[in-house]
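> Could you send the ABC transporter substrate-binding protein prediction when you get a chance?

Sure thing. Input:
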Amino acid sequence: MTTLRLTAAAALLLACFAVPASADAPSGQHKEKVLHMFLSTSETGLDPAVASDLASLSLLENLFDPLLRYDYLARPVKLAANTVTELPRIEDGGKTYTFRLRPGIYFSDDPAFKGKKREVTAADYVYSLKRLYDPALKSPWAYMFEGKLLGDAALKDKFSYDTQIPGLQAVDKYTLRIRLAEPDNNFLYYLAIPASGVVAREVVEAYPGQAGNHPVGTGPFMIGDWKRSDRIVLLANPNSSAVFHATPGADPVDKQIDAALEGQRLPRVDRVEVKIAEEFQGRMLGFLNGEYDYIEQVPESMTDMVIKDGKLKPELAKRGMQLYRFPVLQTYYMWMNMENPLIGGYGKDKVALRRAISMAYNNAEDIALLKKGMATKADSPLPQDAIGYDPNYRSPVPYDPALANALLDKFGYDQRDPDGFRRAPNGQPLTLTMHSEATVGGRLRDELWRKCLNSIGLRVVFKSDKKTEIIKASRLGKVMMFESNWVADFPDGDNFYQLLYGPNAGRANYARFNLPAYNERYEKARALPDGPERKKLYFEMNQLIHAYNPWVPLTHVLSADIRQPWLKNYKRHPVEFTNWRYLDVDVAERERTTHSE
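Output:
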């Protein structure tokens, strides 16, 4: 899911929570404030333990509360207290974390609570984190905790929510103690992701197997109307206890936001109306017509509609719109299934096939024509600003179709069909199947790949589907090739290199790459802080990726973001997916602007 940033220093600020802005307005004087948003893909479900797609995560972080969040304004990024009174007390050489919950945090109302207000306790966080181990859920986030919490083998051996482990204890109603088997430099980041959000056991048990259809959290918003894969309405949560505190930098915009929000109750709007807008053109036209309050990552094919000579077009600037450029902590890559009988495997012939595919990819054409210059070449999994990024690393695999052709000839792919396409070394027809999104953008990318692969004599067919369906099939190992992108869950290189870690196959490791030499280095690097020793391991892991080619690294995005003039407090965060809780709307300005157009 997108881009990440800096410093693992955990200096935090307190985010106490309260009621929505509308509660401050006298009856009859308040004009409802509505944010109009879109998501580019459909949500899969709203269970924090299960969902991992960008759309669902964007919603989850507004509905559920992890222990920690990120400071909205601090750069480099730093963590902040969320449902706890302060950052945890860390003892035992980084293996013991003690959190003190803020009293008075309540779940949104649900029939499962039988008419009573339900306060959050430390036991709720114990239950919520245990859900990541539940084998029935197959949580894609389990890898962050498995083998790390002290005694958690008991949850793996015979899972039960009633099994007590020393690594996860509710000391009293408001005190949570987490113990690790070994120190983990990124552990606090794990406690700020949507998957760590607190849920109530009564709710989960009231809707067996359907928790993702009944999201009941403590976040600043709660679910309102929900028409799957079409429209979602979030309502300001009257039980929210959030109050804004942040650490502004020297940027005048930061200071302005801080002055507007400091000490204010969150959220600042009454509702968020979210539409699913999968087609690029629909998103862009909707924004230009005032249907959406901002657009992030202007689609590459739509750039010429809004940007000229690197600036917002004058007619849009006159309407009060503002353009922001944002280096996203996001990596685009095309992965190949290492268990697929046609393209997978570690033998020389299969390595040669994947290497040739990588060498056929025309990165310059992709960036210039499809991304409209709003991207940089990906030489490794890490984007700029991720902790551990090496600005001097360059991929040893060049764009070189001639060399790719020679490589295929050498390793047995020299036989051709009558139509000129290569056969497999055993003489059988060779047809690659690449999944793609059923969108205009997906079709444009299909044509780029068709051109690249045909240039080295490889036949490819494309199977279009919704991205959510492709992800489901990918986790089951049923997809041969697909372009994905990863948006950072936390600002450290570990979050990207785990995408190729063998034990994560069936989760985020869609390529199902499982190389002992890579796994060993990843495990060593995971235990180290950022520094020369870890960077050396990252270099070696990059070399192994380029040696076996489970991926074709594609691009890192430079996002063009535009906001409407009536939207207040907008600042894109490097790690969090949305900033909806902080945003405000000048209703009068919206009415003036839209009526004058």
